[in-house]
Amino acid sequence: MKTLNLSYWDGIALVGYLILLFIIGYRAYRRTNTKDEDDFLLGNRSLTLPAFVATLVTTWYGGILGIGEFTYSHGISTWIIFGLPYYIFAALFAYLIAGKIRAAGQFTIADIFYNEHGRRVGILGSIFLLFMTTPAPYILMVALLLQIIIGWSFILSLFVGTTISTIYVFWGGFRSVVQTDKFQFIIIYSGFIIFLALLWNDLGGISYLRSNLDQFHLSWIGKNSLQYIIVWFFLASWTFIDPGFHQRCAAAKTLKTAKRGILVSIFFWFIFDILTIMVGLYAAATLSGINPILSYPLLAEKYLPPFLKGLFLTGLLAVIMSTIDSFTLLSAMTFGRDLVWRIKRDKSQKISYLTRIGLILTAIISICLCLVFPSVIKLWYVIGSLFIPPMLLPILTAYFPKYKLSVQFTFNIMISSFSLSFFSFLWGQFHSTVNGVQYLLGIEPFFPGFFLSIILYVGFSLTTKTRKSHKDHKVFKN
After folding, report:
1. Where in the chain is the domain with CATH 1.20.1730.10?
2. Model confidence pTM above 0.85
3. pLDDT digit string (tens) for 50-82?
4. 205-233 b/e with 16+ CB inside 10 Å = b?
5. pLDDT, tens digit (0-9, with 9 covering 90-100), for 213-226
6. When you count CB atoms within 10 A of the terminal residue's CB, does the N or C end of the chain come out lower?
7. Average of per-residue pLDDT across 92-101
8. pLDDT score recorded for residue 474
């Protein structure tokens, strides 16, 4: 892979960013009581509105190279797939669930599963969450950036990128994540605002893009099928079961902070979507024959002067690393606290110790996933398609208990819907052609599992009501 031509000033920007990141992370560690579960995992539930917004915005937007890849290939339809649906589900989350999470006083989604659905569902849900919180897509992006910036091999970039992104989390837990996210929030927006302003001034505005892009890039649908767009719309329901959302709502200072924080974050996501998609369109209009996932750094190589190029690349790293640290901590919490600690039932085991063991295992698993699925978009798509169908209804009914089913019914729904989506996914992999993956009956794997979970839920609900009706009838007769 060709390495970017970086100047001395670009190197200063990149190295300076990493040094400041470690200083901020270490200072947060000094203020963290690693023996206190509440402090290490949730920062003593003291997250203010600005901190809430900074950490949620940066964490939820980690797939920056994936956005560049999709915009380069599909144009403005990126907003329909990766923007609008997430605003909708985030707003629903804010009004329906955020307050309930803060009021519940729990630590993780798994806590809710254990408390509302029982031990078996809690363990199964934790296993699914372990895959959903993997930072693999984001570690892959850091590795690709290190490859193109420094020229290292892909394997070496994977290991170094993983280590850099997780070491300060190993020290200070959630407090380190929040403090570094505040710093990275500024870097992220600054880089893209400056780059877009320069492109607009040097190349021209909307008229330039219209003249240099094809009809597909300027279409709201692009080259995507309607079924593909619908799948991605439902994948945005990931928001409801995203452990990052739950963790930040649980860590918020008040109920109002959790709700308002999400609504303010939606505004900032919208602004950042405009910035990233516009820059991606300039890449599609001016660069040809490139690897789409590297469209942002290659565009920076062509148009940005020294230091500003380094600042922009720093912004790309900041977007990704702000997500890696959060997802790594969440995945480690799931392994250490929600699985090992719960299964062993050994209260003498320190949560922070088990979480740190989980950090190491999470990093290893993520590296393996990157080697198997070396595509950001594919990783997102596979994980969402397999794990959203079995998780969505159980988490919603946990927060609205009057709609929940028995433990056995809930467990059966989760196993059945996951199994069907997984079977559909495997079918497609074994029936791939030169034209792409051929799923059974042409149906994407998300839909079989998703609709099966709904059908089973309705069926089990009717069964429960019928049994209750018969029982009440017998009591009335007696």
Report:
1. 8-372
2. no
3. 988 988 888 877 778 888 888 998 899 999 988
4. eeebbeeebeebbeeebbebeeebbebbb
5. 988 888 887 777 78
6. C
7. 87
8. 53
Question: In residues, how long is the chain?
Answer: 478
> Residue 269's pLDDT is what?
92
The whole-number pLDDT of residue 167 equals 67
